[in-house]
Amino acid sequence: MAKNDTVHFGILGCANIARKVARAISLSPNATIYAIASRSIQKAEKFAAENSLPASVRIYGSYDEVVEDSGVDAVYIPLPTSLHVQWAVTAASKKKHILVEKPAALDVAELDRIIEACEFNGVQFMDGSMWLHHPRTAHMEHLLSLSNSTGIGPVHFIHSTSTMPTTKEFLENNIRVKPELDALGALGDLAWYCIGASLWAKSYKLPTTVTALPDVTRNAAGVILSITASLQWDQPNQTVANIHCSFLSHTSMDLAICGSNGSMHLKDFIIPYNETSAKFDFTFGAKFVDLHIGWNVRPEEVHVANKLPQEALMVQEFARIVASIRDCGSRPSSKWPEISRKTQVVVDAVKKSLELGCKPVAL
């Protein structure tokens, strides 16, 4: 790829997740890191050195300098959620395309401000849900779309978890448990994935009702550390999705999708066990044998290879859209902001259900 075809990224902030995405940008064939900023230039210089960024990368001691740099095509924003709307709107007003960490915003009103700024300025918006860009996800989506005779049939039940063990240090000092930085806690950081996966399995049709369950755990500041919720769809067929997300449990990233004729299961849907391949179990037409002492079929283990890590595939797709807008006059894709907004709507509904004493919230 010629140098002038490459999308130049500016990174706003040196959070730990920025290390992963910086690597992804470096691995992507159509993207490069052009600039990085922190609130202090010393921190930005340290990040650049520790992550072996090229000497050509511009290093700044303020986010404004990246946003004002005419050589930056797009910004990646790994800042605390409370800062997303400020910097995404500012960057969009400078015609920078926006790749932002999830949760995209604290609520749908903030996200609408971001999306509207992107639409007004003709720039692309995408949140950092990396698993959506893995070829395994596309393979599973194909199986979901097949007819009843070859696919799993209408989806009736979805189960997903996103849990992680944490330390005392995390629970006291991490930005994800600070109300002034990431007030959604586990609901934003972890449930974003489970809600997104449930919507994905239902072709992004919003649920009819959303209900938080009463087993929520909060810290002393009121930030959610653990939460369980149920999503229900009435049409075109009845479906229930149960999600559980927690900073207090052993690591899990389970996703099970059960239809009338078959099911799909995977235990690493957010971050695959391996960078270069992923798998899932597909079961079709399973029944119990005589006397119910076994099954007539075993799950088929479906393996999907990928040449780049899923985060690099995300960057590659984002950069492809950006280059098409920049070089060919294309319009931004509406797919990615629509996915983010629907996810945010359900996050808001879970939060509202909690505030109402775990009563159902209609959408």
Describe the structure.
Pfam families: GFO_IDH_MocA, GFO_IDH_MocA_C3. Residues 8-126 form the Gfo/Idh/MocA-like oxidoreductase N-terminal domain. One of its GO terms (molecular function) is nucleotide binding. The structure is a single chain. With 363 residues, the chain is an alpha/beta fold. It folds into 2 domains: 3-129 and 310-333, NAD(P)-binding Rossmann-like Domain (Rossmann fold, 3-Layer(aba) Sandwich); 132-308 and 344-362, Dihydrodipicolinate Reductase, domain 2 (2-Layer Sandwich). 34% of the residues lie in helices and 24% in strands. It is built from 11 helices and 16 strands. The protein has helices spanning 16-27, 41-50, 63-68, 84-93, 108-121, 135-145, 168-173, 186-189, 191-201, 310-328, 335-355; strands at residues 7-12, 31-37, 58-60, 74-77, 97-100, 125-127, 155-163, 209-212, 217-218, 224-233, 239-246, 255-259, 262-266, 277-284, 300-305, 361-362. Strands 7, 8, 9, 10, 11, 12, 13, 14, 15 and 16 form a 10-stranded mixed beta sheet that branches. A 6-stranded parallel beta sheet has the order 3-2-1-4-5-6, with helices on both faces. Strand 2 (31-37), helix 2 (41-50) and strand 3 form a beta-alpha-beta unit. Helix 5 runs antiparallel to helix 11. The model has no long low-confidence stretch (mean pLDDT 95).
